[in-house]
Design goal:
alpha/beta; Rossmann fold; 6-stranded mixed beta sheet; 13 strands; 30% helix; globular
């Protein structure tokens, strides 16, 4: 029987007034995507932090490559081979790709004297970058500034950072939350390559369709307890929702009827140079209006401007036609 790379047994963690994790068992095998599901507050983040070394367990066993681990710090977890790709990416935007890939772990010149003075091996870093990118099917210039990258490219650099230093387990927190369909497909292709390298993936997401598409195994947390561990091939969306919430939904998105009144807010030709252009919308009494878009689409900037917290170059706001 295959042994897991990472195994957590009866993990217990409590904070004042609340039990975050109640004797949770979780494991990760090489070449496997283990999806972690749960509503907000279910305990996912706490479990991820314990694996990453940023939070200490109160009780339970942490086993990595069949060895019990007692000391937990982010540095030790990284040195062992556990990497985390957070939803908020941690790249330094003023640096280039290769410098980010080797941040804190620059390759030094092989010459003893140059190495002594901390002179880094730029050519070696570029060569290693290209090697890792080729292995993952990533097409990026190591010398390109991170500021010039798209969000999906930044995410790929984060993955490459983990691979460059031989990570055995990679934790991905909401990796598709800011990606479009094509970018998500590219990410999934890279994940398949990681599986081929026998790297274990812990995949956290609220997008159930993605979890079923990329996952091999799904664990569901609810109120700090592990309520299910199932094969992704056997999973159904309605079943997962019930496991996460403890409730059965007749409709995922029920239509709510209401009485729609007169227009109470109207925005005309809103412009802010380099941020948004010619935005028009209106809302009536009893109406709900939604603003959709990926991270960076400027939804927040627009609403801050409507509220008067951001200056605009042109445009008008009417309240009750005034």
């Amino acid at each position: 029987m295959r042994q897991p790379i990472l195994e957590l047994r009866n993990i217990f963690k409590a904070f004042p007034g609340v039990t975050a994790l109640d004797n949770v068992n979780f494991d990760v095998h090489g070449g496997e995507v283990h999806v972690l599901l749960g509503e907000n507050g279910a305990g996912k983040s706490t479990l991820i932090k314990i694996i990453a070394g940023t939070e200490k367990k109160d009780n339970g066993d942490f086993i990595f490559e069949q060895k019990a681990i007692e000391k937990h710090t982010p540095f030790l977890m990284r040195e062992m081979g556990i990497s985390v790709i957070h939803q908020e990416l941690s790249l330094v935007r003023l640096m280039d790709v290769k410098s980010n890939l080797f941040l804190g772990r620059d390759l030094k010149k092989k010459n003893w004297l140059l190495s002594k003075f901390g002179i880094r091996d730029d050519a070696g870093m570029v060569s290693r970058c290209k090697q890792v990118f080729a292995e993952l099917g990533i097409n990026l210039d190591p010398n390109k500034s991170v500021m010039e990258l798209t969000l999906s490219q930044m995410q790929l650099v984060e993955i490459a950072k983990a691979v460059a230093f031989d990570s055995k387990v990679i934790l991905m927190d909401e990796p598709t939350s800011s990606l479009g369909p094509e970018e998500k497909d590219q990410l999934f292709r890279v994940i398949e390559r990681l599986k081929g390298r026998k790297i274990g993936i812990v995949y956290v997401s609220h997008i159930l369709e993605d979890c079923m598409a990329i996952g091999d195994k799904i664990s569901v947390l609810r109120d700090g307890q592990l309520v299910a561990n199932i094969d992704a091939n056997d999973a159904e969306i309605d079943t997962l929702i019930k496991l996460m919430t403890g409730r059965t939904f007749q409709e995922r998105y029920p239509k709510i009827s209401g009485i729609i009144g007169d227009t109470i807010l109207e925005v005309q030709n809103f412009n802010k140079e380099g941020v948004f252009e010619n935005i028009n919308f209106s809302i009536k009494k009893g109406e709900i209006i939604g603003f959709a878009g990926l991270v960076g689409a400027r939804r927040t900037d627009l609403l801050r401007a409507v509220f008067g917290l951001e200056e605009i170059n042109a445009g008008k706001v009417f309240i009750n036609s005034k």
